[in-house]
Design a protein that fits this description.
Helix content is about 70%, strand content about 5%. By secondary structure, the chain is mainly alpha-helical.
């Protein structure tokens, strides 16, 4: 979606003056869209995201997964509970550090992830079609930067100087 098409489309509201509010509203809207699309799989969008990261990271520690998802450990534990209960995820004690727990997909969890991945592909394709493929790549890149430790550190430094 180009800036011109945004400006010419009366259905698109004027730009927000608050980045935090705009990002949170966008996240809630995307969450609703993802939750609706994933409903047939029995997963929520957040649960699919967790399964995806666990699969990608191949047995991360709880702390490592929390850092990757920019979540605190208690929120991660809360979000993992239904996946553990339903047998999609298991927590194991780390072999080298018994204080750490590792997060693994079970065979059932891998199957559920693969099933839900087809839904995710449809959502991503629809998003790219509606928003614009090139613009979607740029948006994801921008949001990844905003979620990064580099950005957080730069913001904290800037705020401490002002």
């Amino acid at each position: 979606m180009t800036k011109t098409s945004v400006l010419l489309n009366p259905a698109i509201p004027a730009a927000s003056g608050c980045s935090n509010g705009a990002i949170r509203r966008a996240a809630r809207r995307m969450g609703q869209i993802y939750d609706d699309a994933f409903a047939p799989s029995g997963l929520k969008g957040t649960q699919y995201s967790l399964l995806s990261q666990i699969c990608r990271l191949q047995g991360p520690t709880m702390r490592g997964l929390a850092v990757e998802l920019v979540m605190d450990l208690s929120a991660l534990g809360h979000t993992l509970k239904p996946l553990v209960r339903d047998g999609f995820v298991e927590l194991t004690v780390d072999a080298t550090d018994r204080r750490c727990r590792r997060v693994h997909l079970t065979e059932s969890g891998l199957h559920k992830y693969q099933e839900a991945q087809e839904i995710w592909k449809r959502i991503r394709s629809a998003f790219d079609d509606v928003y614009g493929a090139e613009e979607a790549v740029q948006l994801r890149s921008t949001l990844d930067y905003v979620a990064s430790e580099t950005f957080a550190a730069a913001m904290m430094l800037k705020l401490s100087k002002d």
